[in-house]
Amino acid sequence: MTIKHPAKYSGVLLPHLKELLKGKTIVLDCFGGTGRLKEICSTATILEIEPEWAELSGALVGDATNMDKDWTGKFQAVCTSPCYGNRMADSFNAKDTSKRNTYHHVLGRKPTLGSSAVMQWGNKYKGFHIKAWEEVFRVLEYGGIFILNISDHIRKGEVVKVSEWHKDTILKLGFALVEHRKIKTPRNKYGANRQRVEFESIYVFEKLQNCNKDNQKVKR
Prior knowledge:
Elements: H1 14-21, E1 27-29, E2 45-48, H2 51-57, E3 60-61, E4 75-80, H3 103-107, H4 123-139, E5 140-150, E6 153-155, E7 158-160, H5 162-172, E8 175-183, E9 200-207
Parallel strand pairs: 1-2, 1-4, 2-3, 4-5
Antiparallel strand pairs: 5-9, 6-7, 8-9
């Protein structure tokens, strides 16, 4: 039985990602899901923590916070979309038949221990992604690009600024922001997820070898 994924790259994002990759072939998606990045980059390495989803694309099963030590400086680009810390992280055994689109319910079991799929927005979520983005910095070559698809969400009527937190965190690691695109995409309309922000973000960062405190390139 094929197990669907509740949060694949939206089709409207793929042309943008293909353009931003600009023909790079040594590419990693470290939150690979079902491997949809291979639709625009057939040579991409896909890393996914859930075996059922990894099997769909022949992905490597692994943890984005603890990637292969031999990958240091290997990749020209990392292009990925982590969990957003929204209500899709709800994890419980439903007692009714109402429609739900969470990682737990689509997978049919609780996600693997250590997966960010069951992390609500908060300190645990932040700590996990700091480790993941440190690993992204390590596996990228200098001058390599990091393409991040991320989104805010609405909780209790307020916008949770998930995207801004990721951007600021990544900049502190030694990346420079190259571009930010705001893309309108179809969004989850089920249950507590039906309230939605108007767009998803695509951030493009460059790994710097030499930078000042404002993460601007230093001339040699």
